[in-house]
């Protein structure tokens, strides 16, 4: 598996699984019926944001990550990031490899910490992965996410120093 | 003092004090050198967001507020809001009146709670005001804001049910 910065040519491989994940509505606070154009604008970041892909030996995109400033101005030294792995390729360490790269890049880019604002508390696999990578839960915003099956569940604010 | 929804005609009165507040860089996580066009796009919300002004008897804009969805999709039932009061008109209850209106409107619009993501911890007056209006501090993100005089200080995540 290779992790590299994404190019415009990667989008046609990203959109099908990103669309599946967003349409499911159980892990991302995105509108489930988002258009491809809006999704592309949100995911394929302009500098200083970055977008990465994890690709297999044959060039198949297995997953993707994006990172950007969590706030502007006086909050610009805190990074944020998002991760999506093609459901057909979970269980291979794709998210872990993407997150390791994003953390390394954020340090290189001068960020001092990384914050996730809205990790769905029922997304246990993601929460456990981020914790294993050094993130702690700062708080759970109660009932901040309407899960399609489980009703109102919490959103975790997670954080780690870089 | 009257609180009403803002119109495009209010912007010329909003921009001078909004610019002063943002350029000071000690309370908002906005780029201090933001252009007027970008500031206007960020503050004068399109639906379902809303922007309000507090105006004096003679039509002077004393302060302004904006409110919007804190997240999209499954997080759309949590509102966020921002408040700016002209420094020449502080101490008159403008922020409190604006916040009361924003809370009432958010309930009417069907939001279930309101969350602030980035209240600068040294902005003691704002923190005390939000607490007096029922907001609690869920967590402080450590060193998440670079204050122009005080160095790295925390950003509070504040929350209340509606």
Write up what this structure looks like:
The structure is a homodimer of 162-residue chains. The first copy, chain A, is an alpha+beta fold. Helix content of chain A is 28%, strand content 36%. Chain A is built from 4 helices and 7 strands. Chain A has a 7-stranded mixed sheet. In chain A, strand 2 (50-55) and strand 3 form a beta hairpin. Chain A is globular, with a radius of gyration of 15 Å. The model of chain A has no long low-confidence stretch (mean pLDDT 97). The A-B interface holds A 22, 25-26, 28-32, 70-78, 112-113, 115, 117-118, 120, 138-139, 141-148, 152, 155, 157, 159 and B 22, 25-26, 28-32, 70-78, 112-113, 115, 117-118, 120, 138-139, 141-148, 152, 155, 157, 159.
Shape, principal axes of CA atoms of chain A: globular
Oligomer: homodimer
Distance between the termini of chain A: 24 Å
Question: How many distinct helices of chain A?
Answer: 4
Major sheet summary line of chain A: 7 strands, mixed
User: Helices and strands of chain A, in N-to-C order?
Assistant: EHHEEEHEHEE
The averaged pLDDT of chain A comes out at: 97
Strand order of the largest sheet of chain A: 1-2-3-4-5-7-6
Helix content of chain A: 25-40%
Class by helix and strand content of chain A? alpha+beta
Strand content of chain A: 35-45%
**How many strand units of chain A?**
7
Greatest contact between two chains: A-B, 37 and 37 residues
Low-confidence stretches of chain A: none
**Rg of chain A (CA only):** 15 Å
């Amino acid at each position: 598996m290779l992790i590299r910065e994404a190019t415009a040519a990667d989008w046609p491989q990203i959109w099908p699984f990103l669309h599946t994940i967003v349409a499911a509505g159980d892990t991302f606070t995105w509108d489930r019926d988002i258009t491809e154009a809006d999704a592309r604008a949100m995911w394929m970041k302009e500098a200083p944001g970055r977008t990465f892909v994890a690709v297999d030996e044959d060039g198949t995109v297995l997953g993707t990550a994006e990172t950007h400033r969590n706030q502007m101005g006086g909050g610009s030294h805190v990074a944020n990031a998002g991760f999506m792995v093609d459901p057909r390729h979970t269980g291979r360490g794709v998210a872990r490899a993407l997150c390791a790269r994003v953390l390394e890049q954020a340090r290189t880019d001068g960020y001092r910490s990384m914050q996730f604002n809205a990790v769905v508390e029922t997304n246990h696999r993601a929460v456990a992965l981020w914790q294993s990578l050094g993130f702690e839960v700062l708080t759970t915003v109660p009932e901040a996410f309407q899960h399609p099956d489980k009703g109102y569940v919490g959103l975790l604010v997670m954080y780690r120093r870089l």
